[in-house]
């Protein structure tokens, strides 16, 4: 007679899930494989993927027309049209053609007057970089194209190939061994007799496995024999990543599963306070999760969803979509033509209990904005658009659950945001970091409008020499804020390899072609402070008004020869293999409302920021001080 299994207690489902997840994380080992990029649709990235090349690869004409030297057009006006000579002042270009120095702007064909064989007339000046897509406008070599644990979509494949990625390392789909048990079980194509039960659960599990991103391996039904079941479990454990034993998990005299799993490994949970589905077994055998599911189909289905699916997600990173449309409050005015139905790419985050949609770049060539987007805000035909604060309809690319558990960061750019975003869903499955780079001051204004959880900032108070604090006190008189300390980082001048122009410091910027950061960026504030300190007028710097939106974009322009120097961080110079002249150390922190500190996603972000893993990655990138990372400072 078999041993009867007695339930002493049933464990609450949340507790059972947490206990089992912790146990699985200790023993699990994700497998990876390389696939061709064009064959990677739907797969999960094994690690962050960085661009090999810039896109565009060169400065490219954005319009059909003529490439000109902007300085040669400065005197043009309607009253005094200017004549340009072909080969001296301009070259004919089509959209996509290279625009090489000294040509630095494009005039559209329809704006060219009285074209003759070798000359044209123009009636307005062309500012530098007009209608030119600069190298790296869309993708910068070294930029993170996709974070680890990202599901690859059709647009991602296009961007990956544009960035030079022809093969990609993806998470190998977890293999799930499925063992049906029971002497009374027969196959569906057999003729049933009295007492027979047609086996169907394992086929359901196989389908659920495939829909969840796994590879099912179904074994032949094993009769209720202790040694035979034990042998089948050992075989399945050695051939798969996860094993399901179906039936035999309850309290009958022939329900051997729990005794076998205790003999072979560790049973963490037997019996969960869920109805139906109580007799579930959560165990680990030889470093593999082995889950005993009850025989009743509804119980088996519920337990698969509650216990097998989350374990599969840990192995595969797969997160299933539940809905694809939502309403959100628009953070910025959107104006549109009455002629078209427009799809505007947006980032979506849940801040202060409401979903906020922030528009991204609308240019037809900005493919990365589609990769970064969470969905489309749709502006219907015959609509002029929407005002900031209006509720709009958004078609989602991402799961609503993902968006609800995403930390939104709007503000200053730094490479550590990519490192943190890469780690978040690995250390905390189902939680994500989304960042939009608009500069420190614009980030603080987004925080003031409650459109972001975090505002990355590095704003220097010129009077006190202290970073960030005075700005928060001045802008947020009605709210309690804290500063989550980030990193100390070295700001300096990024120059070409070998520093061919012999640039030594700030004073040398008056004799070179410079590229600046956008207004409100902390780096620009830092430069202005240093210029003032050195007694230099910004008007003396050629290129002071030429703006780039990220440190990597600055580095790309310098490497390509479109600028001799630009202010940025050491890690960007290192990533682009450029030389770097340190100018000073600054503090890059995260402003946040104190009431949001207890959000689970924010706590997960701070935990990653404080982790030894992050510190190792940041140190490897170079140029960071990490002694206070994650520290909370009251403002």
Structure description:
The structure is a single chain. Mean pLDDT is 88; it is low at 1-6. A hairpin with a 2-residue loop joins strand 18 and strand 19. Helix 1 crosses helix 6, helix 3 packs parallel to helix 6 and helix 9 (416-427) crosses helix 15. The chain is of the alpha+beta class and 635 residues long. It folds into five domains: 13-31 and 173-316, MoaB/Mog-like domain (Molybdenum Cofactor Biosythetic Enzyme, Chain A); 32-55 and 138-171, Alpha-Beta Complex (Molybdopterin biosynthesis moea protein, domain 2), CATH 3.90.105; 60-133, Molybdopterin biosynthesis moea protein, domain 3 (Molybdopterin biosynthesis moeA protein, domain 3, Beta Complex), CATH 2.170.190; 325-404, Beta-clip; 425-634, 3-Layer(aba) Sandwich (D-Maltodextrin-Binding Protein, domain 2). Strands 29, 30, 31, 32, 33, 34, 35 and 36 form an eight-stranded mixed sheet that branches.
Task: Give the SSE layout.
Blueprint: H1 13-27, E1 32-36, E2 49-50, E3 60-61, E4 65-68, E5 82-85, E6 90-93, E7 105-108, E8 119-122, E9 132-133, E10 144-146, H2 154-162, E11 167-171, E12 175-180, E13 185-186, E14 197-198, H3 201-211, E15 215-218, H4 226-239, E16 242-246, H5 257-264, E17 266-270, E18 281-285, E19 288-293, H6 297-316, E20 325-330, E21 334-335, E22 342-351, E23 354-359, H7 367-372, E24 375-379, E25 385-386, E26 391-396, H8 400-404, E27 406-411, H9 416-427, E28 432-437, H10 440-448, E29 455-457, H11 469-475, E30 481-495, E31 514-517, H12 522-534, E32 547-548, H13 551-560, E33 565-569, H14 570-575, E34 579-593, H15 600-610, H16 612-621, E35 624-625, E36 632-634
Parallel strand pairs: 12-15, 12-16, 13-14, 16-19, 20-23, 27-28, 31-32, 31-33
Antiparallel strand pairs: 1-11, 2-10, 3-9, 4-6, 4-7, 5-8, 17-18, 18-19, 20-26, 21-25, 22-23, 22-24, 24-26, 29-34, 30-33, 30-34, 30-35, 30-36
Helix pairs in contact: 1-6, 3-6, 4-5, 9-15
